[in-house]
Every structure is written in structure tokens, then in C-alpha cells.
Design goal:
Helix content is about 30%, strand content about 35%. By secondary structure, the protein is an alpha+beta fold. The radius of gyration is 11 Å and the shape is globular.
Length: about 80
């Protein structure tokens, strides 16, 4: 199992990541809100501004304070 750093000492299984996106668009904000209402949202931003949203194959949504480019860089390693 390979892990990627989602920020502040939190890690995500690399094999479960479907996409890493910016939280700026309305569809992504709606996806985050729906996941929050359904109890599938994991916020690892530690109170910082959410700069990326990680979507997993288990329909969990992970909010991170890292830029999407930073997370993708760790996925490619």
C-alpha cells in the first residue's frame, strides 16, 4: 500500500484516489456539501483554507490545505 501526503500528517491510500481537483467550481462545492450531509467528508485541512479536494473510489471526499499540484506530485513519485 502506497500513501500520499494529504497534509498535516494525514495520508491517503494512493490506490483509492480517483482525482484531485480544485474546490473553486460550483459542481465541486456541491459535491463537498453533499458528502458532508451524507457523512462522507473528511477534512484534513486543520482549519486552513481548502485548496484541493481528493475524490476516492469509495465516494469519500477529502478536503486538503495543499495545492492540487503538490498532491499530484506525491502521487507521481
Amino acid at each position: 500500500m502506497k500513501l500520499i501526503d494529504a497534509g498535516f500528517g494525514n495520508y491517503v491510500n494512493r490506490d483509492r484516489v480517483v482525482s484531485v481537483v480544485s474546490p473553486e467550481s460550483l459542481p465541486i462545492r456541491r459535491l463537498v456539501q453533499d458528502a458532508k450531509n451524507a457523512g462522507r467528508l473528511i477534512d484534513v485541512s486543520c482549519g486552513k483554507k481548502t485548496k484541493s479536494v481528493i475524490i476516492t473510489d469509495s465516494d469519500h471526499i477529502i478536503c486538503s490545505a495543499y495545492e492540487p499540484e503538490e498532491i499530484v506530485k506525491t502521487v507521481e513519485e
